[in-house]
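Morning!

This is the sequence you dropped in the shared folder:
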Amino acid sequence: ADKPSPSISAITRGEARTTTTRPETTQTQSPKRDPATMASDAKVPAVAVPGTALGLATNYHAGHGTHVYDGQVVASLLGRVTVTQPDKAPGAQAKRLTKITARAAEELPTISVTRHEKRREVLPDVGSVVLCRVVRLVPKQAIVSIQQVGSTVLDTEWQGVIRAQDVRATEKDKVKIYESFKPGDTVRAQVISLGDQANYYLSTASNELGVIMATSEAGNDMVPLSWKEFKDPVTGVSELRKVAKPD
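The structure's back. Tokens below.
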């Protein structure tokens, strides 16, 4: 006897079972990183200031703008952090390691810090307001080191002189240098002359000019008491200075 023909719906279900396929998946390769790239590892900062720990010296070779301290590569400059991978020797084949060994220095990536931009050197000019540190005193003048012009901190310090006649605007003949400044004081002054090749001539003959930071003989930071005195808040002892009017 003839076998009954399968129903159309059964054939359809059978074809569906035999023709069902899984969707194809494609793998995309991540783009290759340039061997010299800006630091992107979460453990490595993108920007560093002097003293920032960048990584272990066993993992990185200290490059430009860095140094090794206490087993760490530390930033020496303010700037951007760059990690440069080592160049592979041509034709070198990877060797199968049978034990864990420390990488050789030439196999370590180099970590560097570079300044954001090349700054133009700023020079003191007549009329410039500068911050300086008193280096030493002589009978008629204070020798200072100019460290900042306006808001710009100098890479190179310049020597300046504050003469007794330029300390204050009145009673110039009564000015005593050792009663106006002490070595180590930070002074706000104004350039009044370019002087000779060795020194800039500075003046503190204005209310807002003079000593802004001073340390007492006991080694404590002092606070301004008047236009001619600082006071040690610990010992209570006052010392004479040509005091700048507080901002």
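Headline: Residues 44-85+106-118 form a domain with the OB fold (Dihydrolipoamide Acetyltransferase, E2P) fold (CATH 2.40.50.100).

More detail when I'm at my desk.
O.
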